């Protein structure tokens, strides 16, 4: 493997996943003390590598929002139940209960997907910041859509590039395993169905990625039977094989963000009767997939 370690006056960068070279981990940088030029370099590294990790951070909500604004415009949340008071850009993921009420959404994001795929302009990136984590379980997995696409034969790539996926937020919310609910008429109105390509072109450098998702897709447009989703299952299974997947084991103070334009991700379960987990999630607005 080519050594992709990068030395910088402010930090050092190594591959997030040494076995594949996917992603980047920045070592030796305290974001609270980083100047504007350093933060811009960090954002540039993120755009080129698909995922970014900084460990050992100690960021309050205002500092999280300040950093995410360097990446782009924060995206709001379709559901407002667990946004952090005073910080609508931050959504709380937690199984902690205070005063008889959960403080966050629990088991949210379990199942391979890309965030907001049901929107005309899905979120560009997702950032999670670890406030409290269990000693085992609750790993986050990220699948590299670029590597998966490039592993396919050229004729297979050409076939897939002709297909498009019909995404439905209503279908997703009313059939999901966790946090299932019926939508209000206003939520249905505000989240109409959309159609996106199965192979997505990254706007930064033109690299192509497989871009399937689970839960939101109701049809594959361009095949003989659009309602047959077996191809989608096949591609998700292929893209989430070990060679294409990075598994993140959380530590308190981890800041992990991934590029939804070229990845899939999933949360995993943990012993929620014994352990507590609290994460802060932020999103960055995206553009229409090409």
TrEMBL record:
GO terms for molecular function: metal ion binding; taurine dioxygenase activity. Keywords: Dioxygenase, Iron, Metal-binding, Oxidoreductase. Residues 15-283 form the TauD/TfdA-like domain. SUPFAM superfamilies: Clavaminate synthase-like (SSF51197). Pfam families: TauD (PF02668). Belongs to the TfdA dioxygenase family. PANTHER family: ALPHA-KETOGLUTARATE-DEPENDENT SULFONATE DIOXYGENASE. This is TauD/TfdA family dioxygenase.
């Amino acid at each position: 493997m080519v050594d992709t370690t990068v030395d910088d006056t402010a930090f050092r960068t190594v591959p997030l996943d040494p076995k594949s070279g996917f992603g980047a981990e920045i070592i030796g940088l305290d974001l609270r003390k980083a100047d504007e030029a350093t933060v811009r370099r960090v954002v540039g590294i993120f755009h080129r590598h698909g995922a970014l990790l900084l460990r050992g951070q100690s960021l309050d909500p205002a500092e999280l929002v300040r950093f995410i604004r360097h990446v782009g415009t924060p995206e709001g949340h379709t559901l407002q139940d667990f946004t952090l008071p005073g910080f609508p850009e931050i959504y709380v993921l937690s199984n902690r209960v205070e005063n008889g009420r959960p403080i966050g959404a629990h088991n949210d994001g379990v199942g391979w997907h890309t965030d907001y795929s049901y929107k005309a302009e899905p979120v560009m990136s997702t950032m999670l910041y670890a406030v409290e984590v269990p000693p085992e379980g609750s790993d986050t997995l990220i699948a590299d859509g670029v590597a998966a696409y490039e592993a396919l034969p050229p004729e297979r790539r050409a076939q897939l590039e002709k297909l498009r996926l019909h995404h439905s937020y209503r279908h997703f919310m009313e059939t999901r395993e966790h946090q299932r609910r019926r939508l209000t008429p206003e939520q249905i109105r505000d989240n109409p169905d959309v159609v996106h390509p199965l192979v997505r072109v990254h706007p930064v450098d033109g690299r192509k990625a497989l871009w399937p998702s689970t839960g939101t897709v109701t049809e594959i447009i361009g095949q003989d039977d659009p309602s047959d989703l077996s191809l989608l299952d096949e591609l998700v299974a292929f893209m989430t094989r070990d060679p294409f997947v990075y598994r993140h084991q959380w530590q308190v103070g981890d800041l992990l963000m991934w590029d939804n334009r070229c990845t899939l991700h999933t949360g995993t379960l943990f012993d929620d009767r014994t352990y507590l987990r609290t994460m802060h999630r932020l999103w960055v607005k995206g553009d229409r997939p090409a």
